[in-house]
Structure formats: structure tokens, C-alpha cells
Here is the input.
Amino acid sequence: MPEPRTVHPGESIQRALDESGPGARILLGEGTYAQSAWIRHPGVTLTGAGAGRTVLVPGDGGPPDVPRLHDAAEDVVSGLTVHGDAVGDVRVEALTVRGFSGAGVYAHSAAGVSVHEVEARDNAVWGIYLRESTGCRVTRCRASGSQYGGVALSFCPRSGAEITGNESFANAFGVFVDNSSGAALRGNACHGNAIGVLMLNQVYEGEPEGGVRDCLVSGNDLYGNVLAAGAEPDGLGAAGPPISGVGLALIGTHRVVVVDNHIHDNHPGGESIMGAGFVMGSSADFGGDDVLDCHVLWNRVTGNTPLDYQLGADLARQVFAANTAAKGDPPQAPGWRR
Here is the structure.
């Protein structure tokens, strides 16, 4: 294993990464770094002194050839970019990435990216954004203040992703599973967003195949999501329909297991196409599918307005058991009790 290389404020993170090459261990000292960086070699570990102690903010714009954030303008800059088919087994940990015009951490076409104890704060588009990648882990991170997802997994059809123990707040979507399958969401706290967790299957023109299948949503605390998204042309979640006051939504998903979650005290702060703390709905009208073969077990769904649950699905194609709620649609759904 190579000896770690230490970088201090005022020194170039990018130069250290490029000179150290594959397998590099880069330690970032305490302080603020006005720069962005592109991790383009496999096996790299980038470690700060701790969230709030090592801070990356916009500065030099990074290397001129850094791959830009998907679907973003050329002048949009992300804090840390992990990109490339040969780039894998990368670990980013113990730092803050703040105030970038793109994503805080952006991984594309990578394998085995781990983001651990990272604070992604006030990055304009995404907090931690993993796209077309496999085997990624986001653990014990805090993501807030992004226009779209705090933590997002996008077009990862065999993701094998683990999103565990994170806190996501003040975003349009706390955690967004967008056309990605095989993901496990465990023990996350999502609050103060427009929607806590959104799992969405729909097909976009020119994008990879869609679908959300074979996922686990377990032991999450989804509460107090009151912001409004999708109502203003340049506002929070501008590209989507209006959503507000939702804890968890399964839209067009297949074989998702939702077990032992607490979904509570979510109240719309604006217009919303969804009307409950927990929502199941079809995406067939916009290129997706109906919700099929999901298991919803031992969840506590309470104190939400206007409803606790809204089940826009063929109930005979799902399994519901031992869930608690006060009011829902349909009102006498099997597997739900007061």
C-alpha cells in the first residue's frame, strides 16, 4: 500500500491526485480549499480531517477537461468528480463539499465508489449524485440545500448500492432512486424536504433503460417533509411535477420491500400531485409501469396530512401486513390498522 500524501490548504488537490496515480491515499489537512477535483484513477482514497474541518468550496474550477455534470451547462462545476469506466474502488470521506453550482460529489460510470461521513451542503443541483455506476455506498453523510436530490442514484440498473445512516434535509428529494435497481436504503433520516424518499421508474428520451426493481427500504425515519417542489420554473425540483409533504413514494416500482419505517408528520407546504405520507402510484402514463409485487410490512405511518397512505396500485399484486395508519385511501386497505 502506498504511503499517504498530505495536502494542506493552498496546495492543489488535483496535482496530488494526478502525481500519485492509481491507489493513491490523499490526506487533506484541516482548513478550506477553494478548488474542485477530478478523481480519474482507480483505488484512490481521499480523506479529510472531518466534516466541517476540511471544506471544499468553489475556486479555480478544476482541471479544464473534467467531465461535466450530466445534462448541465458547461460552466456548472461539481466539487468532487469520480468519472470513467476504469475508475473504481474510490473512497471519499470525512470532509465538507459546499456551495458548488453542480453536485457536491458526482460519480459517473464508476464501480465501488464509497462516500462516507461527507457533508454536501448548498450545492445547487445535487448533493451526492451517483449515475450509471455499480457497487456504490453512501454512509453516514449529511446532504442539504440542493435543488434536486440530497442523495441520488440515477440509471444504475444493477446498482448493488447501499445508502445507509444518512441525514438529508432541505432538498427537493431527500433520497432519490431514479431508474435504479438493487439498492438498499437503511436507517436514513430524511426531513424538511419536499419528499423524503422518491423511487421513480420512468423512461426519458435518449436515456438508458428505466426501472426500479428489487430494492429494500428499511428502518428509515421520514418526517416533517414540508417544502414545495416543482411549482416554480426555476425553483426547487423545477423539472418535475409539484410535490410537497410526502415521506415515501413508490412510483412504478417492482419488487420493492418496505419494512419497519417510521413515516410521520409530513404536511404539504404547497401544491402536490401526491396526497399522503406514503404513496404508491403508476408511472405507466409517462413511460414507466404500474407498482407490482411490492411488500409493505410493519411500517408506522402516522400524523401525516391530508392522508397517511395513498395506494394507487392493484392491491392484489402487493403484500401488506402489520402497518399502522390512522387514515388512508382506500380507507379499509388490507394489512393496515389504526
The longest helix spans residues 13-20. The mean pLDDT is 95. The domain at 32-337 is CATH 2.160.20.10 (Pectate Lyase C-like).
